[in-house]
Amino acid sequence: MPSSRAFDSEPSMADLIESGRQLHAAKKYRRSLVLFARAMGSCPCAGGARRVKCTCKNFEHVAAQGGSIFREAMYTCHCEVGKTFSKCDNEHHILALDLRAASFEAMDKLVHAMRDAEWILELAPRLPDGYLRVGRIAQLQKNDEYAWKMYSAGIEANKESAVGSSPKLQQLYGAHKSLHWRFSRKDPLCLPAELVTQIFLFLDRVELSVCLRVCKRWKRTLTSSQHCPLWRNMIFDETCSSKGAPRVGALRKMLSWAGDGGARTISIARELSYHQSKFTLLLKASPHLEHLEIWKLPKKHLSFPSNEKIWSRLKHFSMQDRSSTFHQIPVDVPGGFPHTFLQNAASSLEHLDFTGIPEQWFGSVPLIPLLPVLKTLRINHGMASNQTPLSIFHLSVAFPRLEQLSFVGLAELDPEPVAIWRERGNDIWPHLKVLMFQSYYSRSSRERSILTLRYLMCLDRGNTLQHISLDVRSQDRSDIFSGCHELLSDVDVARHSTFQNLQSFRSRTLPIAQAGARLLLSSAIEARRLTSFDMVFGDYWNVRTEPTDASARHLKDYDWLRGAPSIQELGCYDCYFPLYPDNDQFLPLAQFLASFPNLQTLILHNSRHAYMSQVSSVAIVILRLTHLKTIYMCGMSGVSNELRQVAQAHGVQLKLESPPRPWPVTLRKLET
């Protein structure tokens, strides 16, 4: 039988809490509240006095303003509570408050429950309990955003603690995760201005215009001076509908938002109801223009301003409309080549790319703009019927610092005056690194053009050239290194060129005999600089020997190239594929390719329309013997399912297309 003293002893905080738990479980909430209150009052932190809650703190207001809930709980107090009592992280005190808040919740007295939850936060800002309870009650009050901010504040206050260090902290992270996807998104305009600009630069002009309609604040901010870069790219691409073309007034506004200097880039990829007034406005309002490209000309011919010399920063000019009339209309008139406009930008223009060579560029005294700092030139003769040879020498005078040169669709190149190549060969394009030529020749024009290309390849002994691409479509598929000697006896590539810095030689149509290929490539291979090379087997189709033997012999001639460690990409054009092959017939090609330890990309192309099964069988054997990453199957409408499965098993990308040929070519710094 218990003694009288034991019976009269005061129950401990733990006893009171346990009794309150039992009453709470029995749904006797009012009686449980009394026991929880007694447990709170018996905490040593009160010092025998009656402790009350501080009324100075306003957590919800602080959360709404984006302030620190932890600092509010820790330091905000102007009443006597803060002076009289200290913080308390006694686990029984905190548990009693938490359970009393839970009882109020069960009684649907959420105001009282929130009061106790905030009291926990006031007593112990570094514990997760208060944040978790306040957040739960806020969710019951349908205030999910406040709950998310409270959970976030609790996680921040406990960031030094491991998630698994306490069950309460685990619950806090779980509650936060359930709301995070809804409320973690922020108005991007609240971010630093530099970051806002970087984000919105991913949007095009039409999408930016939509953003202006979000609200007045967005429009005011996005059109302010600190976001000028957003309006400096005037891109009118194929995704824009004809209704997307801005009117003159709207265009003037956008250019004003671009700030001093106007647009830096103007790109017109479709007609977009453009007329002269809009085009002139775009140019004249953009004296700091750097990049101008026009892909689609309007039906009415445009004229370029020729009286102003304000575009001193223009670096890139491109006009690639296939319906260009530059070859039909005199320069500087509407629809004609903008000679004076480009001449006025001569001090800065580095890249020129256009379709349709003006008539004035041909002849003994051509009218070509003098562009002393031009680095890249690509000319597409387009649909022009002019068969007059284009003088390379006159181009070298007009563009003395050219680094990359590309001709497309020209009928004939003119090497005259021949004596100049002997006298001033070292002064002609001393920085030429890229030479590309694509055309269809007749027999009468081929020799002069091939000779001109030889001259270009001999400049500075070919040592400046890094990339050569020659696609000459002709019935005469002879070697570029043979013939033409009667035109100039001392132009010998063997004597005048070493090509020690050559990184790629591309040609889908020009076969090169092994002697010529060795001459072209040997120095670059020894220097470990050659990474890409195309082999054309087409000259063996017309011989009377077995085509399979001819292709194998062609590979045999290239034994000196086997195993070159620098080779990363090879093209095989018009190689013979037998109709009913044995694997052994494919082994010479597959073994040849397998000899290159760093080969990553292979291009297989057959213009003779080989059967899908033939080409697929070749590719399967190759994939099993090599370590390719990508294989291009050009000219094929499909491949076998077996090839697709083998490619997937070997982790090889299989592409039924030609590889991209970027322009201008990205030049890499040569290692000395």
UniProtKB/TrEMBL annotation:
Residues covered by the F-box domain: 185-234
Domain of life: Eukaryota
Coiled coil: none
Natural source organism: Claviceps purpurea (strain 20.1) (Ergot fungus)
Protein name per UniProt: F-box domain-containing protein
